[in-house]
């Protein structure tokens, strides 16, 4: 039986009204979910039907809704707010929890390839928080695309030893290797293309040459190329670029990445899948955008293939650091947040947090805190890091630590249940098909299923989308979606778990409800694990 999906259900509801426009809204708030699950607002009905009156045959069509991936309807009625629908909830629980398959990509997800380029790793200097934001975003976007079946290649390879150690600390899996002197044949081919390009001019010998850096090979007139090609979205101040050996090596590495992707995915010529508009994404901070536009245009000039025309730029807002305001490296930032996390854990758990066994837990909590601090805001917005204030990282319901804490609570719940089974206190969890889902009547249970389990595949898909811009070279992504989803899930799960005693008294007449709740929370646990995997965060088994 096909897993019910949010998109399929909304499509069926709109089809039942006989209107191409999307009229239906999914309810999210607990107070509204007490009465309805979907709503066609009164204003939309008034525009679609004369006098806003829905014909009886249309209402009958909504009531008889069904089909693959569609939630069955229990009731449909006119209300002052509009046309309200409630689905058959026990049936929805059964279909969503019955098999507990691994979360699958949402509708429309396919294969394809994408090269994700993070220029922040090319600098010879130590990484700073402003470099870390595009780096973490690139890593997260790669995981999201892979979850949708897209093959990804990360560029550049990390050559600097200090940067490799920082990446290891932050649990970023990035390709290592020397990125400079490799690919000499590709660099030579680019030099030949430079010699044949009408937009390149040699640097003349003489007094003028003495003012140029020694590694300059030639000049390229970017502005002329932009005007000739009619390109839009580039900085108007782009003019003449001094081409160096290092710039050609960067292009050679990008070319090699494209070649690897296309060779490993010969059938996926273009990555135009579920609104991915480009195959090469440059993820840059706003401070690096100008330099990356230069490299983009140089590549288009020297390698005028279809892939270079697919380049897009995903630009991150500034990262403002306060307390201290002096520049600090990513390694210092990590050590500071780790110390703050350690102190917060000691304050909460006492001597346990000073035990050596907690080192791994503290490291994981620190990485989670940093990732949520930098990724839970829309990528184009500014972030302010107050390094003197640890509360945003270590406390509160919007921190990565809070998410990891609730993930650990689920692990503890199932460990406790398993030990109780081994001691003969409870029977083992029966097969999913034998559970009585009608026992799930608590408000928080439907909230967890309807707001998180049902739309989760679409959440991952939305986070991975790179919709084509109306014009220009910038793209926007919803890379904050997963962090916000996990924060809200943690808040609703915590509220439910604090209110409901899942492992009740070992009395047979209470087992049906306990088993159904455990099955629901197994699914919630799997959602936590799958979402955290896109952030390269392992689930915690204890806190």
Question: Helix coverage percent of residues?
Answer: 40-55%
- Per CATH, which architecture of the domain at 113-322? 3-Layer(aba) Sandwich
How many distinct helices?
19
Find the CATH superfamily of the domain at 113-322. HUPs
CATH topology of the domain at 113-322: Rossmann fold
Q: Please state the structural category.
A: alpha/beta
Please outline the major beta sheet: 4 strands, antiparallel
The counted number of beta strands is 13
Q: Give average pLDDT, whole number.
A: 87
Any idea what the radius of gyration is? 27 Å
GO molecular function: arginine-tRNA ligase activity; ATP binding; tRNA binding
Organism: Bucco capensis (collared puffbird)
Domain DALR anticodon binding: 403-543
Protein name: DALD3 protein
Question: In summary, what is this structure?
Answer:
Residues 403-543 form the DALR anticodon binding domain. It comes from Bucco capensis. By secondary structure, this protein is α/β, with parallel strands linked by helices.
What does this structure look like?
There is one protein chain. This protein has 543 residues and is of the alpha/beta class. It has helices at residues 6-16, 30-33, 42-48, 56-63, 89-97, 129-147, 161-169, 184-196, 222-229, 245-264, 289-302, 330-349, 359-375, 391-394, 400-422, 443-453, 456-464, 481-499, 508-533; strands at 25-26, 38-41, 73-79, 82-87, 113-117, 151-155, 200-202, 216-221, 240-244, 280-285, 311-316, 319-322, 383-386. Among the domains are: 6-87; 113-322, HUPs (Rossmann fold), CATH 3.40.50. The chain contains 19 helices and 13 strands. The chain has a four-stranded antiparallel β-sheet with strand order 1-2-4-3. The model is unreliable at 104-109 and 269-275 (pLDDT under 50).
